[in-house]
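Hey team,

Sharing the Glucose--fructose oxidoreductase run so nobody has to redo it. Sequence (377 residues) first:
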Amino acid sequence: MTKLKWGMIGGGEGSQIGPAHRLGALADGRFEMVAGALDHRPEVGRDYAQRLGIAADRAYGDWQDMLAGEKTREDRIDLVTVATPNATHFEITKAFLEAGFNVLCEKPMTMTVEEGEEIVKVAEKTGKICAVNYCYSAYPMVRQARAMVRAGEIGKVRLVVTNFAHGHHGDATDADNPRVRWRYDPAMAGVSGQFADCGIHALHMASFICDDEVEKLSADFASTIASRELEDDAMLNFRMSGGTVGRLWTSSVAIGRQHGFDIQVFGETGGLRWASEQPNQLIYTPVGGRTQVIEKGEGGLYEDAQRLSRVAIAHPEGFPLAVANIYCDLADAIAGEVRDGLPGAADGLRSMAAVETAVASAKADGSWMDARPPMFR
Ligand code: NAI
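Structure output:
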């Protein structure tokens, strides 16, 4: 099998998400890394790319050079990953889609709803894949949860409760650290801090498992560290189009919580619980019955969960392999096999609509507001 050619923008040495993309993309031998503009400092990026084995002529100094260089090559990349800071996603993603490349963009896909709608339109027009890295949705046991909901194993979903609350920005004496401060500065982060950073993962997960979309929401935002302009804690109530009641808490000041992402789905005949810190187990309770632990890799899982379980039962599979599952689905999609679990530009746009709506609702003392992107109303 010929390997697909893959390039990355951002994700340079020392970055948070870069290693997960490299481990994920290369895990199954379906992609090879042949191009990159990995750092905002051209020389540093070129040097690192070559140390990763990329040929000198494809170790680019910036994304514009990479676009120009790749566009004209016969062996151009099949997929580019955009793993730069948020404010650059729109421009880079749009330019690569327009030039006919498939893109995997980090979340949040854009900074505004207008930009999100434009990406959806460009992806439709060009026919290229625009995926968004909601990688938690690619854990095998999250796929199992969605398949169980779809199969009616917990009945009609009444309630979904999700948290993405950690404590890593809870130290007020570290609030001025540049790596922390930018996240709460509107000039760098946009209209929302913690909700746009982590809350949208939780909201996407709620939609993903419930197989439904958020219709309206009410939000309460707080900056618990007073110097922060943007929120470091948020609580949302929401309703999905099928009537499911949703609750979401996201925080970066919840000291003692580590990754802090979990979700519970309560249906008429059962409940499910999944947590990112124990990703290989799905907890299932049928109404009136005993609580059961469903393990990744055990027999009888739904096809999507089985397909994406890599190592034998009881061996932990973690974050990079969830990212690898996104790349697996992308490789299939590039080969023409549509995977409906792959998060796309519409999901990225829905998140931006939720962010802008939550900001507006919080400013209006939690008024309920339509959270759907205008183009999907
Ligand atoms: P980071 O600050 O740790 O690293 C950013 C990297 O991008 C650095 O190597 C930097 O030199 C490079 N860079 C910046 N501007 C660039 C440009 N114009 N061209 C090329 N390279 C450039 O940031 P981090 O935490 O890795 O986040 C990157 C993106 O990934 C963000 O959008 C973030 O929201 C997202 N992310 C997603 C996660 C997920 O679970 N899906 C988890 C962590 C981050």
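Residues 4-135 form a domain with the Rossmann fold fold (CATH 3.40.50.720).

Ping me if you want the raw files.
A.
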